[in-house]
Amino acid sequence: MWTKLIEVKNGYVAKVWKDLYDAEGVAVRIVPPLTAAYSWSAPREIWVPDSKTHVAAEILRKV
Length: 63
Hints:
Order of helices and strands: EHEEH
Number of strands: 3
Strand content: 25-35%
Oligomer: single chain
Strand order of the largest sheet: 1-3-2
């Protein structure tokens, strides 16, 4: 299962968060996905696996 971590204002900010979490070994889902089907200027949600929520929250706290 996945848990919603944060909402960001657009796809560009979501990509920055995804890159950060990827570097820390935390899988991330961006909803809606970063594809041509959705505008990059639309708000996004960052989701993380339930088992990594505490790690993701700690990274978020440190940034």
